[in-house]
């Protein structure tokens, strides 16, 4: 059974310990069920989006400290729903690899899943602070008036916008990009999903609007996503341009270069895993159970921001070192 589960990994290099012992085995069980029921991987992804987004309603409630046993129950349901959504997020990729049903739409949907989860969750946490802020106001010596509550919530909302779009999206996007780069040098183009904005732009331009409105919108979003990844990795882009100049095509990159890149990239994989889901989710669960939801955004901006900057600096230095 272990080998069967491992066969659904993207690679041993990119798997996190918690995913190996928890997420992947349970995701594999779901994938087997979905395969038996002939459910398409993209359908599983959409289900994960719905379930993850639904957790926002329960995260919007206070904890045991502010709402008693019902608050604790709401928070536990929220944790279970987001965990369930993550199992499906694992199962969709495992199912795609088991059945060979990999699609470009699936890649785009998979990348969008965490956004669909976390946008309503973040908004739910802002509402939660608006309702349950008495302790924070006491700490800061602020009178608990309706006007002050609105002002403080508006400030938090501004912080959340920066945390979500300026930090969460950027951090997860860059971490995913580095994983795909690693898979590219480890397995080649067939074993990775290393897309580029120029390629996506060509597909977009060649796709007619008639009958493809939703697909065109998906592609437009994905062009912006990949362009953002490229803009944040200038030394990697220069390295790839030089490799194409030297060897004509990426499949001709020598094995010894691929192995040297893999050796330098492998230590960074633990940071890509920290920056994606598990660590974020654990911190989110803890701060919500403590009824300190704003603390999650401090963590995302300060701690995760510092880790992302460190990972980016290391990766860019690796590219500069291998192809000066």
Automatic annotation (TrEMBL):
Transmembrane segments: 44-62, 68-87, 108-130, 150-169, 293-311
Taxonomy, superkingdom: Bacteria
One Pfam family it belongs to: CDP-OH_P_transf
GO cellular component: membrane
GO molecular function: phosphotransferase activity, for other substituted phosphate groups
Keywords, in A-Z order: Membrane, Transmembrane, Transmembrane helix
InterPro entries attached to this UniProt entry: CDP-OH_P_trans, CDP-OH_PTrfase_TM_dom
BP GO terms, sorted: phospholipid biosynthetic process
Protein name: CDP-alcohol phosphatidyltransferase family protein
Organism field: Candidatus Parabacteroides intestinigallinarum
């Amino acid at each position: 059974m272990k080998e069967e589960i491992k066969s659904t990994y993207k690679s041993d290099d990119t798997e996190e310990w918690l995913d190996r012992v928890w997420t992947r085995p349970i995701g594999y069980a779901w994938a087997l069920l979905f395969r038996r029921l002939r459910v398409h991987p993209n359908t599983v992804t959409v289900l994960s989006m719905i379930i993850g987004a639904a957790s926002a309603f329960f995260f919007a409630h206070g904890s045991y400290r502010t709402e008693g046993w019902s608050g604790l129950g709401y928070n536990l349901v929220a944790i279970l729903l987001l965990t369930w959504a993550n199992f499906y997020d694992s199962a969709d990729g495992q199912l795609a690899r088991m059945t060979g049903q990999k699609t470009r739409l699936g890649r785009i949907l998979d990348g969008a899943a965490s956004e669909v989860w976390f946008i309503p969750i973040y908004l739910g946490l802002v509402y939660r602070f608006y309702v349950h802020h008495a302790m924070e106001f006491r700490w800061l010596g602020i009178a608990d008036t309706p006007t002050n509550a609105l002002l403080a919530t508006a400030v938090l909302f501004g912080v959340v916008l920066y945390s979500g779009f300026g930090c969460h999206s950027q951090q997860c996007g860059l971490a995913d990009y580095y994983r795909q780069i690693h898979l590219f040098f480890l397995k080649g183009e067939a074993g990775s999903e290393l897309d580029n904005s120029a390629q996506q732009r060509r597909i977009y331009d060649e796709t007619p609007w008639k009958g493809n409105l939703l697909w065109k919108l998906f592609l437009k979003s994905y062009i912006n996503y990949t362009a953002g990844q490229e803009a944040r990795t200038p030394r990697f882009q220069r390295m790839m341009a030089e490799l194409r100049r030297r060897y004509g095509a990426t499949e001709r990159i020598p094995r010894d270069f691929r192995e040297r890149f893999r050796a330098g990239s492998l230590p960074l994989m633990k940071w890509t895993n920290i920056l994606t889901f598990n660590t974020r989710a654990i911190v989110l669960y803890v701060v919500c159970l403590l009824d300190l939801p704003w603390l999650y955004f401090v963590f995302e901006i300060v701690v995760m921001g510092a880790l992302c900057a460190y990972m980016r600096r290391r990766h860019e230095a690796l590219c500069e070192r291998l192809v000066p």
